[in-house]
Design goal:
The protein is α+β, with helices and mostly antiparallel strands. The protein contains 13 helices and 10 strands. It folds into 2 domains: about 160 residues, DD-peptidase/beta-lactamase superfamily (Beta-lactamase), CATH 3.40.710.10; about 130 residues, DD-peptidase/beta-lactamase superfamily (Beta-lactamase), CATH 3.40.710. Bound molecules: 6-diazenyl-5-OXO-L-norleucine (DON). The site of 6-diazenyl-5-OXO-L-norleucine has 12 residues, from loops.
Length: about 300
């Protein structure tokens, strides 16, 4: 397996030239463009890694699946999906247009920014600090890594440049989709995007979902139903407006972030973490997607 992963990294590293590192937030552009790493944890606890698996990056939109799990734990499935839909949009992740024009009058799904900000507003806690601390404790638990933390330089950049997200937050408040304090919701959202992790951490989170919400100690942290909801939304909306093509080419529930990470879940089999900061036009890692496509073919991992 390790040889296979090494070859995948070698074969696909040059594809990073086809994309660009995200630069719309200060500091994100510091990433090394041709970095590429993949890590797999299988259900029997074996670990396989190749390339830049220990390199830290911010999880960005991958945090949306983590917040969704905690929001459902805190509020129940019915409440969460009364405020946010389950349908793909086919629009970019930061699109604002369907928010007002659609007859649904709520964000289409929890993986676009509008839906994710609404979900962040549902995390319980007396103030933004407590809400985020609960989220950080939750991600540390499911990744089985107590050292995970926020990159404060990136967080400041998110907050300073996040006016489009702010606009969506205030619109959601006007529609009563956000019931609490908007600034708290935005602060949790900016911080969750700025959590730093490695491909290894992502593989652990993938394995947690592959096991239906259990850690390696056997603790059932979330009900398997929540894990199923999250994996399903990863298939339909996890790779933004490339989700359909990704499902055909790779066929593994996955979630990407503009920091270059992708977390993938092969249910009942393995968790996969990939890092490659050079992104395509939709915000997905160019070389990372290529590695996953080859891996899926080699090991027949498509779930379809
Ligand atoms: O601009 C934002 O909202 C980001 N910090 C998160 C975006 C993200 O990762 C979208 N991804 N592919």
């Amino acid at each position: 397996m390790e040889d296979l992963l090494k070859n995948l990294v070698k074969n696909n590293q040059a594809k990073s030239k086809l994309g660009e590192v995200a630069n719309y937030i200060p500091e994100l552009d510091k990433a090394k463009k041709d970095a590429l790493g993949i890590c797999i944890y299988d259900i029997n606890g074996n670990e396989y890694c190749a390339g830049d698996c220990e390199e830290k990056f911010t999880i960005q939109s991958i945090s949306k699946i983590i917040t969704l799990m905690l929001a459902i734990l805190d509020n129940g499935e019915e409440y969460v999906f009364s405020k946010v839909g389950m349908e793909p949009t086919g629009d970019p992740f930061n699109s604002i247009k369907k928010l007002e024009t659609s007859s649904r009058k709520r964000p289409y799904n929890p993986m676009i920014n509008a839906g994710a900000i609404a979900v962040s507003s549902m995390i319980k806690g007396k103030d933004a600090r407590e809400k985020f601390q609960r989220l950080l404790d939750f991600v540390r638990k499911i990744s089985e890594d107590d050292t995970l933390d926020v990159n404060y330089k990136i967080y400041c950049g998110e907050s300073e440049t996040g006016n489009r997200n702010r606009a969506m937050g205030y619109f959601l408040k006007s529609q009563n989709i956000i019931e609490g304090n908007v600034e708290d919701a935005l602060d949790v959202y900016f911080k969750q995007c700025s959590i730093e992790a490695t491909a290894k951490n992502l593989a652990r989170i993938g394995l947690f979902l592959a096991r239906g919400g259990k850690t390696s100690t056997g603790e059932q942290v979330i009900n398997p139903r929540i894990a199923t909801i999250v994996k399903t939304l990863m298939v339909t909306c996890g790779m933004y407006d490339s989700s359909g093509e990704f499902a055909v080419r790779v066929g593994i529930p996955s979630k990407s972030g503009v920091g270059g990470g992708i977390v993938s879940v092969v249910p009942g089999k393995m968790g996969i973490g990939v890092f490659g900061p050079s992104l395509d036009k939709r915000g997905n890692s160019v070389a990372g997607v290529a590695v996953l496509e080859e891996l899926s073919k080699e090991l027949s991992l498509t779930i379809f």
